[in-house]
Write a structure and sequence with these properties.
This protein has 467 residues and is α+β, with helices and mostly antiparallel strands. Helix content is 32%, strand content 22%. It is globular and about 65 Å long.
Length: 467
């Protein structure tokens, strides 16, 4: 039997796999590399929807431009001219509080200057300066209450609804904010740690990127699908991407790996599994020492798209998020045609409302009509909306990995696997974060491992908190 042998096989042509391939080939263009994708198109969770002049997203709507690796990826894809940005300091965001949309400053400390919480709650935040770190693996809600007081819970809820569609009672603070936990442990206080870090960054001419001000949300004129599409076209043109090639089994063999696919077997020296955590764990089941978790929970959401004519009175900005305490039907909505013009026909508006998430999987079972009516009723109480001239429901298949109790143990397991298997590289949806920037960073780290240039796990990054 003819057995193809590769230097590098990348499993998955989502953004992680395509980024890993692009970074590997940038540093070692002569490598014999193949990306294997089970579907017949690239992108995984990233897909753009077009209908009757409206353009929306099945998955991610964009990513912040404060990540060096993602900026490099845009260059590698040759998409600089097509990138469109919406700066956070120009496009305000709202949180639904007390049944109204309240404009929220994009920096946690500025929230304290607004009349959003009582003075007693603002003073309580300062208790962070002398509160001992919580031991164990607390949830986000436990940790926020302990350090800053319960009054900040709706804001924390909005942040993690917007990113994870998650439940702050279940998400682990060590998993979603490892950098902030490190600051807390090192300085005995988050506020003190943040100020020291800012001072150090100022001494370093504005930090790693040298940028000032808030980052901008980035997408592309033809939607997010342009990014995986362009990367995949480049690889396919070089015969380095195989569609309809599902990997069924992997096992170590000699110095490398053997893969069984739906179209035969192949071997490689380096195997990159650029897959969502649960799909990677299932392929590795029985192949490696058992992980501390056999799977992690996922949260699914759906989007209700609503198009309106000029009579809609939508507040200017990115959109809003609703904490669970508000008991709303929708988790929030993106004011897409404000954020990125050209997403709706001339003179019209597009709203993309999100429903479901970790707390309300039952709403995913509703019919399209029920969902559209539920969202219209909810949003109609928050802004002036005429009857919609367009509506659609998008039900993405991909779930969002939830980084809950036990997740940090799973990351430690991955570190041990990497140490024991220099030819195996695990990255992808849910490995060390869930956002596109997290994925691209991890993909580049895997490329550095393949080039034997990785310096090992870095200290956890302290990420900005944006609504
Ligand atoms: C609804 C939703 C909204 C989101 N919104 C945002 C956002 O606004 N901003 C942001 O930064 N991030 C967002 N994300 C997260 C972002 O989409 C992910 O970080 C990113 O797309 C993950 O890419 P990936 O390549 O790791 O995984 P995937 O996109 O899941 O790609 C994995 C690929 O592997 C393939 N595959 C799986 N198993 C096999 C196999 N055995 N053999 C071969 N191929 C296989 C799949 O077909 C798929 O193409 C969102 C995600 C979802 C689901």
């Amino acid at each position: 039997m003819h057995l193809s042998n590769y230097d590098v096989c990348v499993v998955g042509a989502g953004l992680s796999g395509l980024s890993a391939a692009a970074f590997v080939l940038r540093q070692q263009p002569a490598l014999n590399l193949l990306v294997l994708e089970q579907a017949t198109e690239p992108g995984g969770a990233v897909a753009t929807y077009h209908d009757r002049g409206y353009q929306a997203e099945w998955g991610p709507h964009g990513f912040l431009d404060n990540c060096e690796e993602s900026r490099e990826l845009i260059q590698l894809a040759g998409l600089e001219a097509e990138a469109t940005t919406a700066p956070l300091d120009r496009f305000v965001r709202y949180v639904c509080l007390g049944g109204r949309l309240q404009c929220i400053p994009q920096q946690p400390l500025k929230i304290l200057r607004q009349p959003l919480i009582p003075w007693s709650a603002k003073l309580r935040v300062l208790a962070d300066l002398w509160t001992a770190p919580l031991a164990g693996e607390p949830s986000v809600a436990e940790w926020v209450s302990h350090r800053f007081g319960k009054a900040l819970l709706p804001f924390a809820d909005a942040v993690y609804t917007g990113t994870y569609a998650g439940d702050i009672e279940r998400l682990s603070i060590d998993a979603v904010m490892p950098g902030v936990r490190d600051l807390e442990r090192a300085h005995g206080s988050v506020i003190r740690g943040v100020f020291k870090k800012m001072r150090a960054a100022r001494g370093n001419k504005g930090g790693k990127t040298g940028r000032k001000g808030l980052p901008a949300m980035t997408s592309f004129s033809g939607g997010m699908a342009m990014l995986p599409g362009r990367l995949a076209d480049g690889l396919a043109a070089q015969g380095r991407l195989a569609y309809d090639r599902g990997v069924l089994e992997v096992k170590p063999e000699g110095e490398g790996w053997r893969l069984a696919t739906n179209q035969g077997e192949l071997t490689c020296r380096h195997l990159v599994l650029a897959l969502p955590v649960n799909q990677a764990l299932s392929l590795l089941d029985g192949v490696l020492p058992p992980p501390p978790l056999s799977s992690i929970p996922e949260a699914r959401i759906l989007s209700v798209l609503l198009g309106f004519d000029h009579r809609a009175r939508i507040p200017f900005g990115f959109g809003y998020l609703a904490p669970e305490s508000e008991q709303r039907f929708a988790l929030g909505a993106l004011f897409s045609s404000h954020m990125f013009p050209g997403r709706a026909p001339q003179g019209c508006h597009l709203l993309e409302a999100l429903v479901g998430g970790r707390r309300h999987p039952e709403r995913l079972e509703l019919s399209d009509d029920e969902l559209i009516q539920g969202v219209l009723q909810d949003l109609g109480q928050l802004m002036e909306l005429p009857p919609p001239s367009f509506s659609a429901v998008l039900r993405p298949r991909a779930g969002i990995p939830q980084l809950e109790a036990g997740y940090t143990g799973l990351l430690a397991w991955r570190d041990a696997v990497h140490a024991a298997h220099p030819g195996l590289h695990l990255c992808g949806f849910g490995w060390k974060g869930i956002g596109i920037n997290d994925m691209v960073k991890e993909a580049r780290r895997m490329a550095l491992r393949i080039g034997a240039q990785d310096r090992g796990p870095e200290g956890a990054e302290v990420k900005g908190v944006y609504f």
